[in-house]
Amino acid sequence: MPDAKATPPLTGAAAEREMRRLTRRSFSTGAVAALAGLGAWRWLTTASPEDGLPWPVRRVLRFNQWLAQGYSLGRRLAPTFPAESVRQPARTNGLVGLDGQVEPAGWQLRVGHDGRADQTIALRSMQALPRADLVTELKCVEGWSQVIHFGGVRFMDLMTRFRLGTRSGRAPDPQNNPQDLYRYVYLATPDERYYVGLDMASALHPQTLLCDTINGRPLTRPHGAPLRLYLAVKYGYKSLKRLALVRFQDKRPPDYWADRGYDWYAGL
Ligand SMILES: Nc1nc2c(c(=O)[nH]1)N[C@H]1C(S)=C(S)[C@@H](COP(=O)(O)O)O[C@H]1N2
Ligand SMILES: [Mo]
Question: Which of 10, 107, 195, 255 is close enough to 15 for a disulfide, judged by CB 3.0 to 4.6 Å?
C-alpha cells in the first residue's frame, strides 16, 4: 500500500502549527535554492555562449528557480474560522457544466497524464483517505464572500495515495524531487463545459480539497455533487463543481474564466 499519512483537520491550533512548520521549511529550502539559483543565473546570463553552456542547461536552471519560488509562495494558508461562524444555507453561484443528473453511486474520476494511459479512481476509494475539514471564506470575484465549511480529502493526499502527477509514477515529493512533478493540472466537469487549470503548487496546497460535504451535509447538485474541488487560496471560480476529469500536463491548461478575461492564477 502506498503511504497515505493521517493528517489532522486544518482548524485551530493544528493549522497554526502546520503553518509555522511549512513556512519555516519552505522558507529555508526556498531561500537556499533561490540564492544558489540567483548566483548561478547571473553567471549564466553574463557568460558568453563560448563558455560552453548550451541553452537546455539554462532552461533547467530557470525551471528550478521557478519551482523554488512557486512552492514557497504556495504555502501561504488562508485564515480559518470556527465552524459556528457558518450561516446556512450556502449561496450558490455558477451552474455551467451541471446539466443532467448524476449517479453518485458509480461516480469515478478519470485521471490522465500526458504520455501515459488514463486511469479511473472510484469515489468510494477516495473516501477511504483521511478526512479533511476546512472552514474558510469562499470569495467570488463578483464581489461577495461567505464562510463555508467544506469536508472531503486533500488533493495532495489523493495524489500521494494514487501516485499521481509525477513523471516517474511515484508519489509526489515536492521538496526533494520537484522536477518529477508535472507543472499543471487540468480539471473539468463530465461534459467539459466548465474547466479549470491549476499550477502544481496550488494543487498540492494543504487547503486544496476534493469535497463531498458542504456545511456538514452531503453536497447538493448546485454545489457540485457528488464531488467538487475547493481551493481556499483562490477566487471561487477555480473551485470547480461536479469534478470528473483530471489531467496532469506541462502545458498550461485552459481555464473557463481565464478564457473570458479573468486572471488565470486567480490568487488571493
Ligand atoms: N461546474 C462549475 N463549477 C463552478 C462554477 C460553474 O459555473 N460551474 N462557478 C464557479 C464560481 S464563479 C463560484 S464563485 C463557485 C461558487 O460555488 P458555490 O455555488 O458552491 O457557492 O463555484 C465555481 N465552480
Ligand atoms: Mo464566482
Answer: 10
Instruction: Please write the tens of the pLDDT for every residue from 201-229.
Output: 999 999 999 999 999 999 999 999 999 99
Q: How many CB atoms lie within 10 A of CB 57?
A: 12
Same domain, 28 and 127: no
Number of domains, the chain: 2
Residues 193 and 111 in one domain: yes
Compute how many other C-beta atoms are within 10 angstroms of the C-beta atom of residue 87: 11
Residue nearest (by alpha carbon) to ligand 1 atom 1: 241
Report the SS3 class of residue 201: helix
Three cell numbers at 123?
A: 469515489
The reply to whether 8 falls in a domain is: no
Sheet holding 195-199, edge to edge: 116-122, 108-113, 245-249, 184-188, 195-199
Gap from CA of 139 to ligand 2 centroid (Å): 7
Report the C-alpha gap between 146 and 131 in whole angstroms.
22
Instruction: Determine the longest span between alpha carbons in the chain, in angstroms.
Output: 67
Q: Is the same domain home to 34 and 133?
A: no
CATH code for the domain of 136: 3.90.420.10
Each as own residue / partner, the long-range contacts of residues 13-20 (CB below 8 Å, 24 or more positions apart, any chain) are 15/77, 15/80, 18/77, 18/206, 19/77
Alpha helices in 108-154 (DSSP H): 123-126
Look at ligand 1, atom 21, and give the residue with the nearest C-alpha. 92
| pTM, to two decimals | 0.77
pLDDT in tens, 227-248: 999 999 999 999 999 999 999 9
Q: Which of 93, 212, 268 to mutate to test the pocket of ligand 1 (most atoms within 8 A of CB)?
A: 93
Indicate whether 59 belongs to any domain: no
Ligand 1 close to Cβ of residue 91 (< 6 A)? yes
